[in-house]
Amino acid sequence: MRREIFTEEHEAFRDTVRSFIAKEITPHHEQWEKDGVVSRDVWLAAGRQGLLGIDVDERYGGGGNADFRYYMILDEELAKAGAHGPGFAVHNDINGSYLIRLSDEEQKRRWLPGYCSGEIITAIAMTEPAAGSDLQGIKTTAVRDGDDYVLNGSKTFISNGILADLVIVVAKTDPSAGAKGVSLLVVERGMAGFERGRNLDKVGLHAQDTAELFFDEVRVPKANLLGEEGMGFIYLMQNLARERLSIGAAALAGAEASFERTLEYCKTREAFGRPIGRFQHNRFTLAEMKTELTVARAFTDTCVLADADGELTAEEAAMLKYWNTELLKTVVDRCVQLYGGYGYMTEYPIAKAYQDARIHTIFGGTTEIMKEIIGRSLGV
């Protein structure tokens, strides 16, 4: 079905993104998979191309365009290409919202130009070894001492964790106040006591650096407090809908790409004297996937328009994230089955997609948390 949510400007931007991926990412991604991290050069190239900080004011080197559809196009094309290494979505879709909305003028001047150029790579540190979806259960603390906060604790599963120059850290500044005692502090590369652990060995997303972070008596200046003290949990809740929209949109694009590749395979791969797509069971499987993807696309694009109008609710974002990530998982699994033994060979993109898909129902809030959000909105 024709998508009605994009203008000619959007489609021109999509062409730019595709060209960028073909030139700057695809030729290097296999090596990045082996290295477990991308080159910083691709971040600088993205900055030169105007793919970072699209919604940042032009005064700080950004694009001055708050239309989230541009980020969505970037996310979609990266997903279609299987280019999960560059953590642009974390930087643009998630961290940018905090930096733009919560930074004061001095912080904007200090951080945003490098954020837009790719010289400053960002991460956000929420998850801890004993606190995943339960953000109120974090143990990391930041105690005020004069003009500094003294930060202690650890974080894990942090995307962009190895490369990050600037990390938004979720910490308790008042452990006795529960959710009202959580604040956001910006930790910068080189601060004494800030250490990175290992680059984690994951099932998929091998080119995406994902790290453990450790904070031992890190003195973070009060000038690096993001927003107001004690408002961190509220800020997180306000931003999670956009994060989940981003994850859901990318998941659907990845599912669509896997389906299209598999459909072509089913038209050319022969068994028992005919293409495997002509067997009724396989044809029905393809028909089911096409229908599910088409329905998901309609809902996704509706949510994108709602977000553009400032009307996307937390419940709708949860539905989108839950549905699209679970759909990605099942579509890719069925596609592997249609490929047969070749689907298990990592030289085929569908095998890589199978590895990369699994995390989507976990990060950004698990499927179970999404269902809980939806259920509570129903009054049950």
Task: Please tell me about this protein's structure.
The chain is an alpha+beta fold. The chain has 10 helices and 10 strands. The strands form 3 sheets. A 4-stranded mixed β-sheet has the order 1-4-5-8, covered by helices on one side. Strands 2-3-7-6 form a 4-stranded antiparallel β-sheet, with no helix packed on it. Strands 9-10 form a two-stranded antiparallel sheet. β2 and β3 form a beta hairpin. α8 packs antiparallel against α10. The longest helix is centred in the middle third of the chain and has 37 residues. The mean pLDDT is 96.
Shape: globular
DSSP helix count? 10
Poorly predicted spans: none
Class by alpha and beta content? alpha+beta
Strand content: 15-25%
Largest sheet: 4 strands, mixed
Written as H for each helix and E for each strand, in order along the chain, the element string is: HHHHHEEEEEEEEHEEHHHH
C-alpha end-to-end distance: 36 Å
Radius of gyration (Å): 21 Å
Q: Please state the average pLDDT score.
A: 96
How much helix is in the residues? 40-55%
How many E-type strands? Answer: 10
Strand order of the largest sheet: 1-4-5-8
Structure described in brief:
This protein has ten helices and ten strands. It is α+β, with helices and mostly antiparallel strands and 380 residues long.
Secondary-structure map:
Layout: H1 8-35, H2 40-49, H3 69-80, H4 88-102, H5 105-117, E1 122-125, E2 141-145, E3 148-159, E4 166-172, E5 182-188, E6 194-199, E7 210-221, E8 225-226, H6 232-268, E9 270-271, E10 274-275, H7 280-308, H8 314-339, H9 349-357, H10 367-377
Parallel strand pairs: 1-4
Antiparallel strand pairs: 2-3, 3-7, 4-5, 5-8, 6-7, 9-10
Helix pairs in contact: 1-3, 3-6, 4-6, 6-7, 6-8, 6-9, 7-8, 8-9, 8-10
